[in-house]
Amino acid sequence: MIVYELGCAGGHRFEGWFASSAEFERQRDEKLLVCPICNNDAIERVPHASYVNRGAVEKEKATPRANARAGTHYTNVDAEALAKLVDAIIENTEDVGAAFPEEARRIHYREAPDRHIRGTASPREVEALRDEGIDVVAVPVPLHRQGKTH
Q: Containing domain of residue 141, as a range?
């Protein structure tokens, strides 16, 4: 899996995961990639910082969940855009809570009806799902919005 930092003509930045660089180019050329913020399909790779594994995990001073409660920004997305994204996700998905990893697998392996779901999973569970080829996206849903149906 290759992770690219992407940007649209509207100036929004986001992450994309691809099986190969050729797959990214194919999806871009066929206009299958769109900005999750503005739906612009003029997508290009943008420069990003390299990841260096230092062998030890450092505990961050502020967690994404704490930042969501404080109303801070994520990458270059302001609080209003993030709120709209969260609203769209809540309106268009089914909340399966802590059963998310199991239900995502059931859908992937066609043991359950195909539908859009959301829920909670540990970083280890998310990594395991991705290793199985199951598309998973982590979105910072503020605590006061979790468990809401609309």
A: 64-145
Is 131 a domain residue?
yes
Q: Where are the beta strands (DSSP E) in 11-122?
A: 13-18, 43-45, 94-95, 117-118
The number of folded domains in the chain is 2
Q: Same domain for 72 and 130?
A: yes
pTM of the full predicted structure?
A: 0.47
Whether 56 and 42 have beta carbons less than 8 Å apart is answered as no
Q: Cα(141)–Cα(138) distance, rounded to whole angstroms?
A: 9
In tens, the pLDDT along 92-147 reads: 889 898 999 999 999 999 999 999 998 888 888 988 998 999 988 877 666 666 66
